[in-house]
Automatic annotation (TrEMBL):
Domain Alpha-L-arabinofuranosidase C-terminal: 290-499
SUPFAM superfamilies cross-referenced by the UniProt entry: (Trans)glycosidases, Glycosyl hydrolase domain
Protein name as it appears in the record: non-reducing end alpha-L-arabinofuranosidase
One Pfam assignment: Alpha-L-AF_C
Keyword Nuclease: no
Subunit architecture: Homohexamer; trimer of dimers.
Native organism: Microbacterium murale
Length: 506
């Protein structure tokens, strides 16, 4: 099959929002405990932070990390996680049927985030709590001192404010599974009043209202409309969450899920703008896609599934430790492409989660840490997408899918950095069988040459299910894409079947 992409350096979408390359650390399963934090591990520093995991996080390059949940946050008392470790209460976490020791809390996360060089995106509990606890937390975190909550922070060892700019007003409160589930009107009012009170403590913060937990929610669309009708003036973003998986061996449809992600984003943009127009607002609310990934939620009956774990009460049980294949990594690459294509409105995005729990990084208790296949597209795009997002004209051979009809065989996004003179094209070939002869016409981009071309595809001796296991952690990775070159002012490349490639030009 074949495809032609036309790029014109003057046709841009937006600056690359660096917060698009976010991740998520929840008190869930082994993301915190035995993930980023494991006192006593041979690689742990004096604070219990695993240096092996930290170095993989730095390599992957997330810019912002959402914390501490997730469903967990809707029953969490943040005060439990601050103060002398010995005095912290042990609690039941109802969301994941887990015992929470509170050994790790806000101060530990702030210290860890500094080490990892990431911005913090703090979620508050609007399931069981409200305005008072939220404004207390902003005062605790961001007020310099001389008041009750800020002095408590200082007493707990942090003289300087944490200066957390980005806050989530709860989590998935449209979902019946959520502790403190609400109707859109109940949540809209609560979000509005909580946002107002938080900004009265610190008016420099940015706030994310809860959107739909996924596009299939019965309230999708009306939820966003009602919530924003109440809270449009007080909030800066509305959230989106989406998880995708392959169903019944239908790889073609799975590989086309970015089509669904595109439509989901465009639907939320339309709803935001409808509320903006009706309310005669001038300010622009944007999207925080603060949970997205591949997650095998159905069809698996392994021991790390929530319904299995809930038979007992344990600390840090294995929970949803999905192992990702080449196919999953290519799909993740197309999701990153979709997010980048919508970077004018999706200004924040968080792959869920960072370590062990549906994560690009895995670690074993007392043992090794390694990169899953899905690590690679994230790492490459987080590092290379710089400058302006380009608007692409794509014409491609089609693939027929059960769920989405005919879709383009190639899925692409690109960035142009005026300062460095670098053009980067991110392009997936969704075909399972055929390579794709790609031509990229370059308009207004002078005499660029290909400086590097790499691809993530089926490894030699492997198949589309090949994954990175602890025993073979480098099976799936980026490898050179031979033959990418400029011919008559256009880039020519042959994309392998089932691949996600990066072509860098200068
Ligand atoms: O990321 C796993 C879970 O998925 C989160 O806790 C929740 O917000 C979502 O349903």
């Amino acid at each position: 099959s074949h495809a032609r992409i036309t790029i014109d350096r003057d046709y841009t979408i937006a600056d690359v929002p660096r917060r698009l390359f976010g991740s998520f650390v929840e008190h869930m399963g082994r993301c915190v405990y035995t993930g980023i934090y494991e006192p006593g591990h041979p690689q742990a520093d004096e604070r219990g932070f695993r240096k092996d995991v930290l170095s993989l996080v730095k390599e992957m390059g997330p810019t912002v990390i959402r914390y501490p949940g997730g469903n967990f946050v809707s029953g969490y008392l943040w005060e439990d996680g601050v103060g002398p470790a010995a005095d912290r209460p042990v609690r039941i976490d109802g969301a994941w049927h887990t015992i929470e020791t509170n050994a790790f809390g806000l101060h530990e996360f702030v210290d860890w985030a500094k080490e990892a060089d990431v911005e913090i995106m703090e979620a508050i509990n609007l399931g069981t709590r409200g305005v008072e606890e939220a404004r207390a937390l902003v005062e605790y975190a961001n007020h310099p001192g001389g008041t009750y909550w800020s002095d408590l922070r200082r007493k707990n060892g942090a003289a300087d404010p944490f200066d957390i700019k980005l806050w989530c007003l709860g989590n998935e409160l449209d979902g019946p599974w959520q502790i403190g589930h609400k109707t859109a009107a109940e949540y809209g009012r609560l979000a509005q009043e909580t946002a107002k009170a938080m900004k009265l403590v610190d008016d420099s913060i940015e706030l994310v209202a809860v959107g739909s937990s996924n596009r299939g929610m019965p309230t999708f669309g009306t939820w966003e409309h009602t919530v924003l009708t109440h809270a449009y003036d007080e909030v800066d973003y509305i959230s989106m969450h989406a998880y995708y998986q392959e169903h019944d061996g239908d790889a073609e449809s799975f590989l086309a899920e970015a089509v669904e992600m595109d439509a989901f984003i465009e639907g939320v943009v339309a709803t935001i703008d409808a509320v903006k127009a009706a309310g005669k607002h001038t300010k622009q609310v944007d999207i925080s896609f603060d949970e997205w990934n591949v997650w095998y939620q159905s069809g698996l009956d392994t021991e790390d599934q929530p319904h299995q774990v809930s038979k007992s009460w344990r600390t840090h049980p294995r929970l949803i430790e999905d192992t990702y294949s080449v196919t999953d990594a290519v799909v993740v690459g197309t999701f990153l492409n979709s997010l980048l294509r919508h970077g004018d409105r999706v200004r924040i995005a968080n792959q869920a989660q960072l370590v062990n729990v549906i994560a690009p990084i895995r670690s074993e208790e007392g043992g090794a840490a390694w990169r899953q296949s899905t690590f690679w597209p994230f790492e490459r795009m987080a590092r290379l997408a710089r400058g302006q997002i380009l608007r692409l004209a794509v014409s491609s051979s089609q693939i027929s899918t059960k769920r989405y009809g005919d879709v383009d065989a190639v899925d692409a996004a690109a960035t142009w950095d005026e300062e460095t003179g670098r053009l980067v094209v991110f392009v997936a070939n969704r075909s399972l069988e055929e390579s794709n002869d790609l031509t990229v016409d370059l308009r207004g981009l002078g005499n660029l040459r290909v400086t590097n071309a790499e691809t993530l595809t089926i490894p030699e001796d492997g198949d589309r299910f090949t994954a990175n296991l602890e025993s073979a952690p480098d099976s799936v990775r980026m490898v050179p894409l031979p033959g990418a070159e400029i011919v008559d002012g256009a880039v020519r490349a042959s994309l392998p079947p089932l691949s996600w490639s990066v072509i860098e030009l200068e």
